[in-house]
Amino acid sequence: MKKISIADARSIAREVASRHPEPRFYRECGEGMEISKNIYDSDPLVLRFREYLEGMGDDFGHGLLHSGLVAVDAGAIVATELGGAEEIVKRDVVLVQVAGLLHDIKRKDKDHAAKGAEEAARLLKDVGLADEEVGIIVFAIANHEAFKETGETADEDGRLISDALYDADKFRWGPDNFTTTLWEMLSFADIDIGLMLEGYSSGMAGVERIKDTFRTNTGKKYGPEFIEIGLRIGREIYDRLVEMRGE
């Protein structure tokens, strides 16, 4: 039976993914994406936390690539939900992007969402945010895990930011899961490809369950497609790896 390296498996995954379409979200929410990307590249607070995470390398969980994608997509969801580029939109996009950057800061810890919320509260002291804004970010981080009960808030902006963070994080369970996240986790934990394949079907079932959990209107509209594309990619990857191993 042929042994397959993680690097080879990742290369196969990316080749498979290249034949699949990009999710419609990026085309149909172009205005929201542009607003979000501009803020991500220019807002002083966002840049401050990007620099902070860069200094940590990949030592805090999925790494800056994952957190950056979540931050930008969450910002686009917020901008799309609110519509337009008014000041309130910018403020909420900044808050959700900071939440996106920090949401996995305690990814290695048990109950990482709660621990991450606590760490975010500490990091957000004296950065120029109002207590209410810090509370919104902390609430969002505490409630970003799948298949767990969420906290309640009467603050509409707080709920939107929390839901947008969740949806953008779960967008990553689509193509990104099979082109990047899976291989980073295997590499970090030093798990053999053969062992990974043994648990592949149960992992795919977990991804399938995410389809019905999206929270914002934008997430509910576009999220299931992310998951469907990811599942198609995942099935092809599995078949290719099994064939290569000679099983």
Total count of strands: 0
- Low-confidence segments, given as residue ranges, are none
Query: What is the name of the CATH architecture?
Result: Orthogonal Bundle
Rg from C-alpha positions? 18 Å
CA-based shape: globular
Q: Approximately how much helix is present in the residues?
A: over 70%
**Largest β-sheet summary:** none
What brief labels describe this structure?
HD/PDEase_dom; 247 residues; mainly alpha; 71% helix; 13 helices; HD domain-containing protein; Hypothetical protein af1432
What's the SSE blueprint?
Elements: H1 6-17, H2 25-28, H3 30-40, H4 44-56, H5 64-82, H6 87-102, H7 112-123, H8 131-142, H9 156-171, H10 175-189, H11 193-198, H12 200-209, H13 217-245
How would you briefly describe this protein structure?
By secondary structure, this protein is mainly alpha-helical.
